[in-house]
Structure formats: structure tokens, C-alpha cells
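Saturday, quiet lab. Running sequence design on the C-alpha cells for the scaffold JK sent over.
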């Protein structure tokens, strides 16, 4: 049973077109094991016992989502997103009355409930929310405009930001609104919180929670999902 005083809504921005995939449709509608990316993602969120519902921000002329069976799920709310990811997130937040919200990429179908559990526990014990992240393992290089190495960057305390990212709903709305007004490049929700002087917590998560952005990622995500099914 979901505690209504601690209800969590997931917002999934899904208005992007995914140009880097070079496909005939937005990447969230490409198939993995005969199921679209976004369906895999939504099933993970909807099956988590602490997520009350999911708000999906779609493109204004999206012809695909309505054809999916999951579009009629009683715990899915559909809204029209915007030109940029941050616009779609804000559009989704307008449909959220619950105290807590987590934002998750439509193209991250491999997130596990165990990581979502850890995120929820940490976010609810923090004043500034929390994000899933994976520690950087590779040697990091900073490049120059002409394509040469400027220097090697120390990877200690460097993290790959993942999603979901979870915050108190009013706090995130205010942070995003302020960041947009200030012209900040909001690459994820945590960056808006940082702009407002807040420091979200980092929750170390599995690195197989990949975001599908290029054709080779499809095969990798398929493999990871198959491994989860076997487990």
C-alpha cells in the first residue's frame, strides 16, 4: 500500500526525436525483444510498489504512443512536452500534485528496482533530493577545440549522472524555473538544483542503467534486459 503522504510520481520526458539514432522514428519507439524502449521503461516504473503513477511528456504530434497498449494504463497520465527536455519535465511536473517526484529518461529501460529503492531511501532522508550515478572508471581527458588532448582529468569523485533523479516536487519546480530564467543549460534536474545552491545526494548505482542514444546501445540494452530476465 502506497503512503499517500509520501506518494511518488515518476515523470518521463519522451518528446525527443533521437536524431543520433538515424532511425525512422524517435528512439523511444524502437524495439527491444519485440517491445518498445518506452514500454520497457514504463513497466519498470509502474511495477515498483512505491511509485503511485507515471506522467509521460509526449511530442505535440506524437503518432506512436497512442498505438501502444500501455497508453491506456490507468496509472499513466499523458501531457504535451516541449522543445527541450527541461520543457517536457516542467510540463510533466504541472500534472504532479504528490509531494515527491522522480524524473527518468524514456530511453533508460534497464534501471533496476534495487537502485530505485536506494534512491528513494536516500532522497527522502535528504533536504535536497538525490540522483543515481555511476563512478567514472576510465581515464578522463579534457580535449581542445582542435581535437587534441589538453590534459588528463583526475577521475576521483567523478560520476556519470544517471536517472531516475528524485526531489520534493515544489523544490524541483522552483529550481527548474529559476534555472531557465537565468539562462542555465539544464542538462539534468540536479544541475538546476545546483544552480540554486543545493547539493543533491549521490546514490551509487549499476552502470548497466544505460541510456540508449546510438545504434550500438540497442544491442547492449537488449543483452542487459536478457540478463535481468534470467536472474
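Result came back. Writing it out in full:
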Amino acid at each position: 500500500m502506497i503512503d499517500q503522504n509520501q506518494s511518488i510520481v515518476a515523470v518521463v520526458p519522451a518528446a525527443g526525436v533521437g536524431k543520433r539514432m538515424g532511425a525512422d522514428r524517435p528512439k523511444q519507439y524502437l524495439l527491444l525483444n519485440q517491445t518498445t524502449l518506452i514500454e520497457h521503461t514504463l513497466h519498470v516504473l509502474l511495477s515498483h510498489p512505491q511509485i503511485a503513477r507515471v506522467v509521460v511528456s509526449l511530442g505535440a504530434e506524437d503518432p506512436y504512443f497512442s498505438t501502444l497498449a500501455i497508453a491506456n494504463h490507468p496509472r499513466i497520465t499523458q501531457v504535451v512536452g516541449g522543445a527541450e527536455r527541461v520543457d517536457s519535465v516542467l510540463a510533466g511536473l504541472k500534472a504532479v500534485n504528490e509531494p515527491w517526484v522522480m524524473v527518468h529518461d524514456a530511453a533508460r529501460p534497464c534501471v533496476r528496482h534495487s537502485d530505485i529503492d536506494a534512491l528513494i531511501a536516500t532522497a527522502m532522508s535528504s533536504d535536497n533530493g538525490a540522483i543515481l550515478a555511476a563512478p567514472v572508471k576510465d581515464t578522463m581527458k579534457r580535449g581542445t577545440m582542435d581535437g587534441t588532448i589538453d590534459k588528463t582529468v583526475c577521475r576521483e569523485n567523478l560520476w556519470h549522472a544517471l536517472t531516475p533523479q528524485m526531489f520534493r516536487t515544489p523544490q524541483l519546480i522552483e529550481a527548474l524555473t529559476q534555472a531557465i530564467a537565468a539562462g542555465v543549460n539544464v542538462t539534468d534536474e540536479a544541475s538546476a538544483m545546483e544552480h540554486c545552491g543545493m547539493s543533491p545526494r549521490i546514490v551509487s548505482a549499476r552502470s548497466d542503467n544505460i541510456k540508449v542514444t546510438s545504434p550500438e546501445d540497442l544491442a547492449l540494452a537488449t543483452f542487459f534486459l536478457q540478463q535481468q530476465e534470467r536472474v
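Notes for JK: Helices lie at 37-46, 85-93, 113-124, 169-181, 189-195, 215-230. Residues 15 and 146 are 33 Å apart (CA to CA). Ask whether to fix the surface positions before the next round.
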